[in-house]
């Protein structure tokens, strides 16, 4: 039996995709007020839930089809991601996408690559005059950050006591999860935070970099050796 099971948690916006899709939507469709809300989240003066919820409240629900078509055409998957997911499947490495993004673009962009049962994200409600956000994955009793989609809470539900947690991300929404990981593979804002907090981390530009960083972790190397040797793996 292998010693520790690697558990891989991956952000979506700006990590799997080249751009942050919420920011792209706001730039194209929201009035100027969204800038102050974004700055409030980045400075941590406003919770992610309040900031993101308020940004979407600036957008009329009547724009649903236009916004959806825009973001699905604009968004691009970061190079190497599909091959990376196939590699994880071949190695029986557990993988989940945990995103502060919205279902109306996360699900279609990952269709055929990652099954819905392995995706955690928020839900956009177009039933009112303005878009509202539903939060199906709130903070548990151990988190008081009002995250919206609470990545640390989801990790606590998915992990076992001896799991080796690997977080892949890029932004402020990934910081609390990074603090609870054994290895963080990061870019952009999150990379700077990892450096300042002295977290165990590696930098990435694409998912070929992510794969190399994974293979450099002793726990992943041991897991793959066990797999290739036909030995029993933790389920």
TrEMBL record:
Top-level taxon: Bacteria
Which catalytic reaction applies to this protein?
A: O-phospho-D-serine + H2O = D-serine + phosphate; 2-hydroxy-5-methylsulfanyl-3-oxopent-1-enyl phosphate + H2O = 1,2-dihydroxy-5-(methylsulfanyl)pent-1-en-3-one + phosphate; O-phospho-L-serine + H2O = L-serine + phosphate
Pathway this chain belongs to: Amino-acid biosynthesis; L-methionine biosynthesis via salvage pathway; L-methionine from S-methyl-5-thio-alpha-D-ribose 1-phosphate: step 4/6; Amino-acid biosynthesis; L-serine biosynthesis; L-serine from 3-phospho-D-glycerate: step 3/3
Q: Name one Pfam family in it.
A: HAD
Tell me where the transmembrane regions lie. Answer: none
Q: Known EC number(s)?
A: 3.1.3.87
Keywords associated with the record: Amino-acid biosynthesis, Hydrolase, Magnesium, Metal-binding, Methionine biosynthesis, Serine biosynthesis
InterPro entries assigned to the protein according to its UniProt record, in alphabetical order: HAD-like_SerB, HAD-like_sf, HAD-SF_hydro_IB_MtnX, HAD_hydro_PyrdxlP_Pase-like, HAD_sf
Query: What function does the entry list?
Result: Dephosphorylates 2-hydroxy-3-keto-5-methylthiopentenyl-1-phosphate (HK-MTPenyl-1-P) yielding 1,2-dihydroxy-3-keto-5-methylthiopentene (DHK-MTPene).
How is this protein named in the record?
Answer: 2-hydroxy-3-keto-5-methylthiopentenyl-1-phosphate phosphatase
User: Which species does the entry assign this protein to?
Assistant: Bacillus glycinifermentans
The record's gene field reads mtnX
